[in-house]
Design goal:
Elements: H1 7-18, H2 59-77, H3 88-91, H4 96-109, H5 117-124, H6 142-156, H7 160-176, H8 183-194, H9 224-227, H10 232-245, H11 253-260, H12 278-293
Helix pairs in contact: 1-6, 4-6, 7-8, 10-12
Length: 310
């Protein structure tokens, strides 16, 4: 798999950031804090036998199901903001939606306004949220800044196998009618990461594709309306997606990990900007214009930081 080329680097990022194993596992609750999000269950279903009688699970299956049930119960009870250092154990088993909320809650607590509709809707539903302005990472406390970066690093380093497992579990919930309210958002986030569209026929709300979900949309000239709900982070990723589609290699660790998980990405050391097509240049100008209006990244900004915020 493509991600294997970066496995050591990703593991190093996690181990260097984690500060985990010696850290107490109990969180210090804050008041107020976001309400816990229900954790998707990844336990395998037991197919009925040909006779119509229920299959008898073996001891290993029972033990695994017990472990999964216990892990899911713990995950559902875990908070979405911590007043201590976040550890890897705090993140294991989380959905991409939960990881995004964990990463962005420190910004929301300072009044950050969100362009992504689902994040904006989620935080506006929290009684403590007072939206005011765009908040930069350097404005966060040292602890919140470390935690946001740690969650972002963990999220970016999720293995292809784990993402595929999460996608299959989501599709299984769709088939058996056990979707939760946040699964339509999860489908959007997973579609970006696994490189294929995840369509939920029983989703609680219809999902609308963006050019980041479906890069083939970049074959046409984009409109401002298509970019209006995209966050600064997503605009940055979309801009680099245009280059990635033409084979541009990246030096940013964050971009390397993001595009390494995309099946269509084929970096070419002989790349130059002459490969960009007219539609690419038009879309780049539009994205950069929207980024500038939104206080987006500049060349001097730490690009890896973009993977940690909204």
């Amino acid at each position: 798999m493509k991600r294997s080329t970066l496995a050591i680097a990703a593991a190093t990022l996690i181990s260097c950031a984690s500060r985990t194993s010696q850290q107490p596992s109990t969180s210090v609750p804050v008041d107020p804090r976001p309400e816990p999000v229900a954790q998707p269950q990844d336990a395998a279903t037991v197919e009925p036998s040909d006779t119509g009688a229920p299959s008898s699970p073996d001891a290993n299956t029972v033990a695994r199901d017990d472990r999964d049930a216990s892990a899911n119960a713990v995950a559902a009870a875990r908070p979405l903001y911590y007043e201590r250092e976040i550890t890897e154990q705090d993140l294991v088993g989380r959905s991409l939606r939960e990881l995004a909320i964990l990463r962005n809650t420190p910004y929301a607590r300072m009044g950050h306004t969100f362009r992504r509709p689902w994040l904006d809707e989620y935080f506006r539903a929290q009684p403590w949220y007072q939206p005011r302005r765009v908040v930069q990472e350097q404005e966060l406390s040292a602890l919140d800044r470390r935690n946001a970066r740690f969650v972002g690093t963990y999220d970016n380093a999720l293995a292809d196998a784990r993402l595929d497992e999460m996608a299959r579990a989501l599709e299984a919930r769709n088939r058996d009618g056990s979707l939760s309210d946040g699964d339509s958002v999860e489908a959007v986030l997973l579609s970006q990461r696994v490189g294929r569209q995840i369509v939920l026929t029983r989703a609680s709300a219809p999902r609308r594709s963006t050019p980041l979900d479906d890069p083939s949309m970049l074959d046409e000239v984009l409109t401002r309306q298509q970019l209006s709900a995209m966050s600064i982070r997503d605009l940055w990723l979309l801009r680099n997606t245009i280059y990635a589609r033409r084979g541009r290699p990246f030096r940013s660790n964050a971009l390397l990990m993001y595009f390494d998980g995309v099946d269509w990405y084929q970096p070419d050391t002989a790349y130059n900007d002459a490969r960009l097509r007219r539609v690419d240049r038009q879309n780049l100008r539009l994205i950069q214009s929207v980024e500038a209006e939104s206080g987006g990244p500049t060349n001097a900004r730490d690009e890896d930081e973009m993977m940690n915020g909204a």
